[in-house]
Amino acid sequence: MKLHQAKLQHSFFDTFKHRGDLHLSQVSPSGLQQPVLVSANRQLANELGLDPDCLDSEAFLQLMAGHITGEHFNPIALVYSGHQFGVWAGQLGDGRAITLGELPVNAPSDASGKPILWDIQLKGAGTTPYSRFADGRAVLRSSIREYLCSEAMHNLGIATTRALALVDSQTQVYREEVESGATVCRVAQSHIRFGSFEHFHYRNQPEAVKALADYVIQRNFPEWQNEDNKYRLMLENCVLKTAKMIAQWQAVGFNHGVMNTDNMSIIGDTIDYGPFGFFDSYDPEHICNHSDTQGRYSFKNQPSVGLWNLNALATALTSLISNSDLVSALKQYEPEYLNQYRTIMASKIGLEQYQSDDENLINQLLELLQINKVDYTIFFRSLADFSTNNIDIRDQFIDREGFDSWAEKYRIRIAQQKLSAQQRKQRMNAVNPKYVLRNYMAQAAIEAAEQGDYSEVNLLLSILQSPYDEHPQAQKYAGLPPDWADQLAVSCSS
Length: 494
Ligand code: AMP
Ligand code: MG
Description:
Blueprint: H1 5-11, E1 24-26, E2 36-40, H2 42-47, H3 58-64, E3 76-78, E4 80-84, E5 87-93, E6 97-105, E7 116-123, E8 138-139, H4 140-155, E9 162-168, E10 172-174, E11 178-188, H5 194-202, H6 206-220, H7 230-252, E12 254-255, E13 277-278, H8 302-316, H9 323-330, H10 333-348, H11 358-371, H12 376-383, H13 391-394, H14 400-415, H15 421-429, H16 439-450, H17 455-464
Antiparallel strand pairs: 1-3, 2-9, 4-5, 6-7, 7-11, 8-11, 9-11, 10-11, 12-13
Helix pairs in contact: 4-16, 4-17, 5-6, 5-8, 7-8, 7-9, 7-10, 11-14, 16-17
């Protein structure tokens, strides 16, 4: 398919309009001035069935910059509310994301033969009726972070929104200083948040809560449409997907930073990349968001905040689901989280099956990593080479004897398996990434891009799209971060 605007608009579905009263607003994006394509995501374009040639076209750039032509487009914005830092904040979004339409993509694996719909959304294309006093813009800096990190997460196997394109411009955006306005084209099978349901629940509009739930079910879970307990199924699915997503965050060392209920997706995607961070050395107390002075969203709090947020979602669904069903759905969170986390951590140390004693082995290792300030990503990658001679692994610890005594237990445990060292290494390298998007890497790409050089963004995109592979041209990003990386502060301002 060619992605000329005319072709794209005709291929778009416009299901929002026909799905009950979703309280949405039609909006006209305000395009960026003198837009320049920073990056187009060819991997995603291919998955969406888009013609790769059109990514270089002027029409694609203009569309991604928010210059919409043609009367058939019906861009919309969807309102939502949320709990921010545990406090009910009322209506707060979506003031700067505009959904252009839904792209049907044929999924060969889908037995129903029906295409899957993907929302194509522009973040930063001007104000909507929900912008309050803000400008509806996004700055280049935060757009680069979202663009790169969402693709990094996807390629780490973590459910997330995707990003199709990133556009820079001459539009001036006023934050603490003047910055370049940018757009990210965000792509997801749903952009509905927990806060979308809360919005109507707290406005005492149960019919709107129902319309939204019906919309999500028709759109994302059509197989449940005729089930009596379809709302409960939707909630249970969200509980399980959220538990898995957060277990994966914990296992890879990802700190989201702003787990407000408006930043939680009803389909369990990682959504809204702001002041996120991957920690360098293992640190459960890690707080990536400079504005989070109390550490509510610290690394170690993420699993329990996930449940807090699901409780908020359940509360918003009380008009649709009985109390006992809400409670039984929420009760599935903790066992699912633990099951997922243990399975992933076992695989990270090369174990085929998690056994109950492995918890000690894993916890002792994490404690050693923490005390010795060992780099998390580098350590797990290096552990694949564990053998009789472990100098490179051992040398990462100040307390070498501490490592030796752990290594002895580890040696006994892996000897219980039938895997050869080579097989174990292969499996471990498929779950322990060589590359994650550390803050300093994003910063290097941002600083170059702010000078008009987008090559680092594209280099990072390419390595983060295959994070388990070796990338000799990006060896500098596989080692320890530079000293200045510690000083980087990231906050909510974007
Ligand atoms: P965030 O903290 O980035 O998740 O933002 C919370 C909400 O504030 C989002 O739903 C946005 O729609 C809205 N918002 C953030 N920045 C802007 C902006 N520059 N203009 C309009 N709305 C914004
Ligand atoms: Mg948000």
